Amino acid sequence: MAKAAKDTRPIADQATSEAACTYAALILYEDNQDIDATKLAKIIKAANLRVEPIWAKVFEKALKGKKVGDLLHGSSGNAGSAPVAQTTATPAAAEAKKAEPVKEVKKVEEPEEDVDMGGLFD
């Protein structure tokens, strides 16, 4: 049996790998296909790039269940997001803050010393 030729292309650096996976995910999104590691790897290979297999898996996991279109347009990608909690102080807490005396820290200024610069600034 003949062995498959070993891929001798160098593995792309981190930034290139991330960009390749991002573009591959966008291609799959535009083609209305599910984003999975196998499809990402096929697109990256077709682009004549070689990335660590972990990158395709990371992108698959990160985008699983997310709406890529929503991510592109600035929403969170989740159907329901938790409302932002507002913090309001109770009247008692506000009164306690008012009652605390403010301590002033006075900085003692030290007199400057004359340093002989050897006539440099004379």
TrEMBL record:
User: Per the record's keyword annotation, is Ribosomal protein included, yes or no?
Assistant: yes
Say which family it is in.
Answer: Belongs to the eukaryotic ribosomal protein P1/P2 family.
Keyword tags: Ribonucleoprotein, Ribosomal protein
Q: Which Pfam families match?
A: Ribosomal_60s
The species this protein was found in? Paramecium sonneborni
Q: Where is the composition biased (Basic and acidic residues)?
A: 95-109
Q: Does the keyword Ribosomal protein apply?
A: yes
Q: What CDD domains does the record tag this protein with?
A: Ribosomal_P1 (cd05831)
Compositionally biased intervals (Low complexity): 82-94
Q: Which PANTHER family match?
A: 60S ACIDIC RIBOSOMAL PROTEIN P1 (PTHR45696), LARGE RIBOSOMAL SUBUNIT PROTEIN P1 (PTHR45696:SF10)
Task: State the protein's name.
Answer: 60S acidic ribosomal protein P1
| One Gene Ontology CC term in the entry | cytosolic large ribosomal subunit
Q: Where is this region: Disordered?
A: 74-122
